[in-house]
Amino acid sequence: MENLKGKVAIITGASSGIGEVTALELTKAGAKVVLGARRADRLEALAKKITDAGGEALWAVCDVTVREQVDKLAALAHEKYGRVDILINNAGIMLLSFMRNRHVDEWDKMIDVNIKGVLYAVAAVLPIMREQKSGIIVNISSVAGKRVLPSAAVYSGTKFALNAITEGLRQELSADDGIRVTSIQPGAVATELITHVTDAEAAKRAEMLDQIRILDAQDVAAAIVFAVSQPPHVNVNEVTLIPGDQRN
Ligand SMILES: NC(=O)c1ccc[n+]([C@@H]2O[C@H](COP(=O)([O-])OP(=O)(O)OC[C@H]3O[C@@H](n4cnc5c(N)ncnc54)[C@H](OP(=O)(O)O)[C@@H]3O)[C@@H](O)[C@H]2O)c1
Questions:
Q1: What is the pLDDT of residue 1?
Q2: Residue 160 φ then ψ, to 5°
Q3: Which CATH number fits domain 8-238: 3.40.50.720, 1.10.1740.10, 2.60.20.10, 3.40.50.300?
Q4: The pLDDT of residue 3
Q5: Atom of ligand 1 lying closest to residue 42 CA
């Protein structure tokens, strides 16, 4: 595996869960991280934890639905470190709800964060990575991007779209620009993601996950580190991780 020493990684949604643990793991492998999310206090604390341990981290408040903030995050990385080697499109929301309950505002939010937020970040780093003739874009998708379950129609829709975008990026960028593209597709992971569900019926259905041993954010972070540590001729296209106990 290639050493990540000196590599510069932007992580969206770095204030909790998979993004937070991935930031810690990438810095342990030698990368410099640039952290974005909306909760400044959490980003500041994470950056301090990394620097206290001898790593390098910058942070900026970045709501991925605001294109200017995403552009600024990429510019921060480029101006301070002179390059962007890795983009982890991790920011995401999973506001599960049954269609009959018409949580239209939440459908909008998921489309804005899970699809448009990713596109804004891709647009922000592409000129930098194309100039470098190298880079890795890691999109955090889900098993919900391959199959649909009740209450997950719109969330799944966003992750299906993300998978299509990932494959399109790979086809266009990999051979021509030396930019690799990876889709990480976890099953259930123990993070705060599920706690933001407001639809009572959907929340009740999700309680079934309490019965099984689901993944830890650490498990997903390990897969991300694996994917971005490969030599330039190896593009890890997809990694699917499902808890051994998860049936659907
Ligand atoms: N947990 C699972 O079971 C699971 C399974 C498969 C895939 N995933 C995917 O994994 C990714 C990370 O989720 P997680 O499980 O680690 O949940 P999480 O702990 O809730 O993390 C989500 C992150 O996204 C950020 N975020 C939300 N809205 C944002 C916005 N508008 N702009 C910028 N950042 C925003 C949050 O930070 P702020 O609130 O501070 O902005 C938070 O840091 C998501 O894409 C999710 O779809 C999770």
A1: 45
A2: -60, -45
A3: 3.40.50.720
A4: 83
A5: 40
